[in-house]
Please model this.
Amino acid sequence: MKQYETLRSESKKSKYMRWVFNFWPCIWCTECKVEFIAGDFKELHVSLKLNIRTRNRVGTVYGGSIYSSVDPYFMLLFMEVLGKGYVVWDKGASVKFVRPILNKVNCRFLITDELIELVKQKTAETGEYIFELPLKYEDADGKVYATFTKTVYVADKEFYKRKLEARKI
Model:
């Protein structure tokens, strides 16, 4: 179910991927829920709420659940959007816990056409490109609970193979 207004809709493939994500042990254990994946894989919505499995000692959502619930998605979306000619890795991340989470919060992953073109252009120029993407967990009223910066690495597959071979020498 969409957590944000969007004109995009799910496809059979993205619905299946959403189902797989929600039962994939490393995602399922965070207690987050992938609510929506656009059919073009340029948008994804995740929700997280306080419950027995996410509750920490002081009665709020555990920081590990907060971060891990947003960890893999930009990498996985870019893998779908860019296709098999590219290598995509999570390179780094930072998180700032703004306020304790006591109720349901949502996060929207959005990849614009401009960003895709920039990534392809930079990768074509240098073989690889590293960039940062912002995220935030917010409630239905727009109050922010956590902010994130995800660092993503994208490389041309042939460039990446040569890079790995050069390391072996």
